[in-house]
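Reviewer comment 2.1 asked that we show a complete input and output for one of the modelled complexes. We chose the 1-deoxynojirimycin case, as it is the one discussed in the main text.
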Amino acid sequence: MWSTRWSRRRMILLCIWATLVFLLQSAVSVKEHDFKKCDQSGFCKRNRAYADDVSAQSSIWTSPYDIIPESASFKDGQWQAVIIKTINNGERVRFPVTISLLKSGVARVSVDEEKRQKKEIELRHNSKARKERYNEAQDWVIVGGLDLDKQAQVVFTDKSHASIKYGDDGKFEVVIHFSPFELEFRRNGETHIKFNDRGFLNLEHWRPKIEKEGESAGSDEGNADAKRKTNGAEDESTWWDESFGGATDSKPRGPESVAMDISFVGYEQVFGIPEHTGPISLRQTRGGDGNHNEPYRLYNTDVFEYELDSPMTLYGAIPFMQAHRKDSSVGVFWLSAAETWVDIVKEKDSKNPLSLGKTSKSTQTHWISESGILDAFVFLGPTPQDLTKKYGELTGYTAMPQEFSVGYHQCRWNYISDDDVKDVDRRMDKYKIPYDVIWLDIEYTDEKKYFTWDPHSFADPVGMGEQLDAHGRKLVVIIDPHIKKVDDYSVSTNLLSKDLAVHNKEGEIYEGWCWPGSSNWIDCFNPKAIEWWKTLFRYDSFKGTLANTFLWNDMNEPSVFNGPETTMPKDNLHFGQWEHRDIHNINGLTFHNASWEAMASRKKGERRRPFILTRSFYAGSQRLGAMWTGDNQATWEHLAASIPMILNQGISGFPFAGADVGGFFGNPEKDLMARWYQAGAFYPFMRAHAHIDSRRREPYMLGEPYTEILTKTLRLRYSLLPAWYTAFFYANRDGSPIVRPMVWTHPSEESGFSIDDQLFLGTTGLLVKPIVEKDKFSTDIWIPDDEIYIDYNTYQVLKTQKAKRVTVEAAIDAVPILMRGGSIFPRRDIPRRSAAAMRFDDYTLVVVVAKDGSAEGDLYADDGDTFDNEKGQYIYRKFRLADNVLQSTEAEGRDLKSIKPGEWLQAMREVRVDRITIVNAPASLDRKECQVQSEGRAQSVKVEYHAAEKGRAAFAVIGRVGVRIGEDWSIQLA
Ligand code: NOJ
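Response of the prediction step:
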């Protein structure tokens, strides 16, 4: 008895100690030495050394990988063969390769290792791990787009190479060089991407460990390649085990890395591979002025107070890289769930025929993954839109969001009680500050036992939820993947008794430290674990939660305080006996997925869209919810860094992204708060969040004029919610980023490619550049085209010139926003307390007339809650101004009469266009009335015309218009 009490007390002390250590660590900046550099990661170091070796001997070097010509076959869009790797001792290792040409025009190259495939290998240390290279990443990541292009044709083949044409009209071509194995991907006869052109392909084959007495670790045992003209022996020191920060990885399968060079021929800039801080146009990584010294790393990790402008890994990984040059975009998606490093080098390219005397550059990349098969998808564009769409076809598009989640989220670690939550809710109303969601961080639980409530501070969660509901508001609660290991907690006892947790290398349940102290981790690779997880979220099971409760998944990298690099040991075992090293980067996605499944089945018959925020992510996570950029700091530099990070998420297929508004660590000054809310108002996911040690900073706490500034900013966000929702719709439909960088919207304007501090919001034509510097009250916005640009706040017409910058004033209460001529965007202008309260408000349309007198835009709306949109229950309008007629038509030409309206569509019958503001209005509108036609009736509506003056555009306000938003209508402007 005494001893149980003592051990419990010791446990509590240990918990406090662990938390203190963590908080203390949080208070200082990132500890570089806690995270590996390439030369501290065996396989990265080996492959970089291999590349250096190869480069040093490039004139005499030949890659040891050859295709056996006789092994090649082609059927139904798939080319298969065997690659042989020849080793010093004459041994030949077989690697089956498949090149799949997909109907979408994407090519897929997969290489496996025969011996491991056939399980003809021995594991060390009596390991129970799987013997194969991990090949199941696709089961988690790929959801479509795999149909083969049966029209693809081998157009040439002999003993040295084969050439296959594929894609529409055979405009794409892959040339397979046999000896050595190299691939060239061409579009309309021109090579854009090369694989193994530099000979860095390195598939570390399985070999037994041979204990050689007296031999140093640096021997070249069985591995030096026959064709490799090098005397340098390979460094075996990290083949069989590897230590870092006091932890040893037992590596039962020995070295298994897969690495290859991928060159983007004639492309000087590459983008993507989040999550990192730094510019969207990626830097070189092999040193030199302005370059990094380290490769970009992808190994999802809980990095405290991360560094800015760094290739260091962060919480999520999307190994999708895009290369852009004027009028051409291509890309590669490297489907590996293992730790991956990517080196980037740009070389002058004299050979490129397109250079026409100009020195062009090519970008050469080197991808290095620790384990698994080689699996790469090649996209040949030619537009950024093609890449986004095809990538989305494979990995899925952004889920249509819960409508409230596009509003403003109020969070901190932590609202201390249910009364505190209710009080914040009341005060937001008192100050007329719109918000939709209040969040609860880990302290709401009873001693960090998820699915429970602290009995003292959150004694009445239902009362709290009901008050929020009465105000149309939602609650988000955090649930992490670590489960406190204690006997009196049924979630823990069930997890253990049902054997649903991650195991250690010995096959025992893995135990580590996180917020609750000693914990176990649910293994969401296990289908039974997902089934069990679902049961925990049912209303009758997670007591205290209501229909307005949604979810936050944090620490799912997973974060393990006492684990190597704050995560799990790589030799831990998951369902299917896969080692953690094989699946690490998709671990977060699997937890997010289990939570999605759980939230989608809280109650039988209830079909509502889950909203789940995740910190860790991988390609495909966009199907499941939103992400945020983790633990940033309340500094101007972090504010600035958030914009490129969010833009990068957008072009990398996961656009529902935000950063902690205000900054997580520290206490932001008031002007920083003002500017951060203004930037946050243009994050797809807008949530204020703060560390437990920071001072309270709800918008009403700031005092005037700042509370008013924040309120005004939030109203701006809310008035544009219909435009935001429409932007989400496009992300859902074709993968378009919600906020868009210039390289994506204007792929012909080279001078805009690397601009990553300004953005277009969806299709609105709103060009926004938040101020991210202290004491700055104007900014220079780069103008991408020859259209007219008008200040959103003042209607001043800016004196712009394509590809030049224009100065825009922005006092502390203003966000620099320009309206591009030719755009029409929807708004809802009545200030309300929440998105829910605005659901059936009338719309305002803003028409910004182009130089040629035209304009166009769109609106998408649905119930923002269920999946009825998939059954046609939505409104999708195209607005067009041409020849002085402004029209609204059904965007897809659907026959609306054939759609039986459900509850939401019926209610929308009474939602109308209130006002139409025409900016840069034609002089023909200088009159009192104009004619509106709809539903077979014509009526006159009032026009208020304001002539242009002192640089301000002419504008006209038409209204009240009164036509139904869901019906066709037209207005004669002249
Ligand atoms: C780490 C998250 O990044 C942070 O947002 C959260 O407040 C803490 N975990 C506590 O849950």
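The chain has three domains: 40-207+239-350+358-395, 408-478+512-720, 840-973. We note this here for comparison with the apo prediction described in Section 3.2.
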